[in-house]
Design brief:
Length: about 350
């Protein structure tokens, strides 16, 4: 059992973050926020995949205005991603945003920061301080110290600005495209503050490479008990980010939402098309919310025996296979009916 780092608890909409709350899975829309119809459609798709908090880019006043209509049509909390213009932050709060992602030191003069913080405090709106390795303040970037230390220094600077304004509904992220840099930065910040932490490897890449980077980076930190929310950043349909986030959490037994899918890598004993079958089973069950373990195994040797912990499964034989439940074989069927028989069994009982 992983012992999680203690963190203060905040709330974004109706979702609790930090403390003893479950680690939440986030994503970000890649639609133009001004296009309410497309943005709402994507948010609903993400919500159906299990996304619990969504972030949208707010580039101008029209995008900030769209927040009001978007909020009316979705069921999960929404975060406004804002850079430099404090007026957009104010506009988003007035339009019902659930949280802000901005760095207070980047939105201008002290009076501008005070205006945003005061309104956020009045409306109970948390602020995520988002530090990216590639966009540090010039004076910090110029220092001759490790990049991870620069990131933490920047985060602490922005935290102080908010705390000096008596604001503590704060969440922090420190993202780099370098996995070791990101890990070290989060380890350091975890020792310096108890604010909740949002994890991510920024610009991690396309699906295959990005999944590996994110799994290594986020998995390392989560295994150490660090992290309260996560986003797997991929150059891909953001729905894949949500599926990946839950897969990482399930692999560490931190969340049990949805199917825990088990399949063997195949070997010379396998006499069925296991790769195709495994893909079809996993895809068919991806939207099931119930925490079930389903196994697709290549042969009787590694079937019900090695996967006896599974709720349901199949084990291949010679052009046929066995359907099993809780380690007990309940049916033998031809290969072409394995998928249907397994899915019929699962769907009939769930």
């Amino acid at each position: 059992m992983i012992k999680r780092r203690f963190s203060k608890q905040i709330q974004i909409g109706d979702v609790k973050i930090g403390g003893d709350a479950p680690i939440t899975v986030q994503s970000m829309c890649n639609t133009d926020t001004r296009d309410v119809e497309k943005t709402v459609a994507q948010i609903k798709e993400l919500q159906n995949a299990g996304c619990e908090i969504i972030r949208v880019a707010v580039l101008n006043k029209d995008a900030a205005n769209a927040i009001k209509e978007i909020k009316k049509q979705i069921q999960i909390p929404i975060i406004a991603d804002i850079h430099f213009d404090y007026r957009l932050a104010i506009q988003c709060i007035e339009n019902g945003i659930d949280a802000l992602r901005l760095n207070p030191g980047n939105i201008g003069r002290d009076e501008n920061v005070k205006k945003v913080v005061s309104l956020a405090k009045t409306n109970n709106i948390p602020i995520r301080i988002g530090i990216n390795a590639g966009s540090l303040e010039k004076n910090i970037a110029a220092l001759d110290i490790p990049l991870s230390e620069k990131m933490v220094m920047s985060a602490m600077h922005h935290i102080k600005i908010l705390e000096d304004n008596n604001f503590d509904k704060i969440k922090i992220s420190l993202k780099s495209s370098s996995v070791p840099t990101t890990i070290e930065a989060y380890r350091m910040i975890a020792q310096k503050t108890d604010y909740p932490l949002h994890l991510g490897i920024t610009e991690s890449g396309t699906l295959k490479g990005g999944l590996v980077k994110s799994a290594v980076g986020l998995g390392t930190l989560l295994a150490e008990g660090i992290g309260d929310t996560i986003r797997v950043s991929l150059t891909e349909n953001p729905v894949e980010e949500v599926y990946a986030g839950y897969s990482i959490l399930k692999s560490l037994e931190l969340r049990q939402k949805g199917i825990n899918f088990v399949s063997c890598p195949t070997c010379g004993r396998c006499q069925i098309n296991l790769i195709e079958l495994a893909k079809k089973v996993e895809n068919a069950l991806k939207d099931i919310d119930k925490p079930l373990t389903v196994a697709v195994m290549g042969c009787p040797v590694n079937g019900p025996g090695e996967a006896k912990h599974a709720d349901y499964g199949v084990a291949g034989a010679i052009k046929e296979g066995y359907i099993f439940k809780k380690g007990e074989i309940i049916k033998k069927v031809p290969e072409e009916f394995l998928l249907k028989e397994l899915l019929d069994l699962i769907n009939s009982e769930n």
